[in-house]
Structures are given as C-alpha cells and as structure tokens.
Input
Amino acid sequence: MPIEIYHRVATGLPNQDLGVMVLQLNSGQVWGQAPNGGAIAAVKAYYGPLPPNQDGVEFETPLPPSYRVPMLGCLQMWSAQSGHAVLVPANPNFAMIPVRFTRVRYVGQLNLQGGVDLQL
Output
C-alpha cells in the first residue's frame, strides 16, 4: 500500500505558529483538539502535499484516517475515539498521531521572518 501524504497549513495563530512547528518536528507527532462544535479530540489535516504558496507542514503517517470529509477540501481526521489516534496523557483535550515530516515551509511574514523551507 503506498504511503499517503497529508498537510496542515500554518495560520500564524498560536496553534499553528513557528513554536508549534518546532515542537512537532522534535516529537515526530501532530496533535489536534476537537473540531469546532465537537467534543472528541481529533487530529485534522488535508490530503495531499502542502500547496506551493502556503506555509505549513507536510507529513506521512502509518495510521489511516478515521474520517474523510471531501467537501471540506479533502479534510482528514484521526479520532481518539475511533482508535486511529491516542489521547495525550498530559492533556486529554488533545489527540496525537505519529508522523514522519516530509516538508516544512515557514516563509510568510505572519509565520516567520526570514523563512524556513525544508525538504525532509
């Protein structure tokens, strides 16, 4: 089975800023909270590579998504309730999946002055 690539877009907000990117790289994990209006922690990412003009992270994971939501830009979700992600012991409001990062791009003024664009 081929490895699938997913991405998360950097928003410049505290949950997707440079500090979070460094924590993700060091841990080899991506974390997520319950979606808006939801109660179950889940990691959310988009299917496919990071678009060329967007900051964020691109990764692969051995875990299949719990859900795919095609009408939201092919949003993928790994839910702790489904067993496709695990709750973070120190903070059960978050789910976590193990990943291998394949690209990190933080070049936008909002995300990082000077820029980082790594092909891993």
About this structure: The chain has one domain: 5-112. Residues 5-112 form one domain. The chain has a mean pLDDT of 83. The chain has one helix and ten strands.
